[in-house]
Amino acid sequence: MQNPILNDSDDSAVISPEAELLISEVSQYLKPEDLALLKSAYFFSQKAHSGQFRKSGEPYISHPITVARILGELRLDAVTLTAALLHDVVEDTGILKQEISERFGSSVAELVDGVSKLDKIRFQTQADMQAENFRKMLLAMAQDVRVILIKLADRLHNMRTLEVMSPEKQHRIAQETLEIYAPIAHRLGLENIYQELQELGFCFSYPTRYKVLLKATKAARGNRREVVGKILDAIKQRLQEAELDAVVTGREKHLYSIYKKMAEKHLSFSDVLDIYGFRVIVRDVSSCYVALGALHSLYKPIPGKFKDYIAIPKPNGYQSLHSTLLGPYGLPIEIQIRTHEMHHIAEAGVASHWLYKSKNTDAGIDDLHMKANQWMKGLLETLNDSSDSLEFLEHLKVDLFPGEVYVFTPQGKILTLPRGATVVDFAYAVHTDVGNCCVAARINGEITPLRTRLKSGDRVEIITAPAAKPNPIWLSYVATGRARSSIRYFLRTIQYNESVKLGERLLNQALHSFGVNPDAIEPSQWEKLVKESKAKSKEALLADIALGKQLAAVLAKRLAVPGESVSNIQSNNSITILGTEGMAVKFARCCHPIPGDGIVGLIKKDQGLVIHMQDCPAVIRIKDHKNMENQLDVVWGTDIDRTFPVSIFMTVVNKSGVLARVTAEIAKADSNIDDITLENDKDYTTMRFILQTRDRQHLAQIFRRLKHIDEIVKMGRIKNL
User: Are residues 197 and 136 in the same domain?
Assistant: First the structure.
């Protein structure tokens, strides 16, 4: 049954004082027809929420009105404000999306639907549930940024009224706000919302610390008024002398900012508060630099404390000149200099797109909106590359807390990366394919390795190779979520494809042992087996075989003789190891098998097929326990064209130059050294090497060359690391 909705004639009903205030505030920039739409949305929402109350006891309609007022302060469009008034009606009253679309248009309905999906999120204590909820939120945000703007306003009002909740809920919601919502507001350039969310999050997360800091700050600020007034007068006087029309204000430090600086830099309260902040707003960009010069002549600038965010804006579009000066009495003074347009962007962020939509002559606003869309697009790419929600949340938090490293491409384009970013992060920021194929880089013209950390101002050129692939070790030093998710996605995809091929080989071997031709198996048999095994597909089932999650012999029996039970099935054929199986086949590090060794394969769950030497202690332990079901017969193939690591040791007399002679002989035998460890005794040194060898014959050649060194007392192969 359709929900009753108000007719247009009902809009003549008495409007509440709160709603009147909203209409009055937004009437300064909205058209009459927009105001009529808002009034209609108000009456519709009031009717829908009739009889509902908030935990504070207020009528529920007060909440959507306040959310709309917060967005009205950002001068958002009528569609967004209408959706804000209606954002809870689908979730809380049973009114359908179709009704909203018919009454207020499809754009409003889509926004309400997007916010309603977010409101269905109930944050759980389990990390994986919380992470999955954030995935949903970012998906909705990427479809239309106004969804998250409404959600941020909704969260802000809820934080303002959080005192009615239990202490446990207060702490949980405040922590979510500090970890996710406040950083998103900051990333979108919504500075006022960001600051208030941080302050409220701090207040309810650490109430005692908040109260102590609040009391101390109020007392300190009362004592500072005279000093602040003198500095303010001096700045205004100098700017007037420079013939600049400027608005100068003092900037109070926020409590959470004070708290973080004290905690991170181990500073006392007085050290943090003894920094005075001032903001200068001027007419145009050239005036910013004139003002900077004037103030540098008033107070000496502190070296290394100047940042030009006008020439190189922050990722969220923020622009200003920042400089720290040495003021009277040796007090540090932080100065921000910006234009009026920059100030609007700093206050409203992406909302500036709608604020200046009709008179947009500032290219910076379009650029800001483009950057926001690029960031959200990057989040979607990370979302697609992530295997699970926890991994995505990890990448999201990395991207929400970026540092400020600005580097240049060879073409002069500026890329912003978090502090600690490496060459690999830069490569993936350029393009995923560039990251996947990178092998080195030129930084400021000099060849550097991939793990090199970048500094602001570096000019970076990536060197690629067509056959290059991501290395798992990259994950230990990359700093961006995009790089980490791209590397993991590539490694998972490669391993999956290789596992499917290996699983097919293992299954075919088992089928041959039953005298069954794999090509003769009907598709219907495969469909039945996949369904019974609860696998997603045939390929997934084959990958499970390679990863040890399914036994090839068991599945082969079910395919060969449907309906029969399986017991004590052994395969008579051997798997041939070619050395080209990639990540699906691993060579045990405990014994480092090489071609020519007698080998055996062990299927380990989630690791796949691991190749050991036959006399490896790990294999012997399995035989002693008669646990043979996951053991496979394997043999080396012929014409293997690759090298394998092998461990050797030698005991040498302590003499100068012995290590150099040993490494020279190894090099002459056409072998590379991967690792060296040394243990010194009084007269002897034990050297352990991991070398790259082709096979046992190659290893024998290395030993023959080393025998010519008289100082070597004993040497051999290490088979049990």
Answer: yes
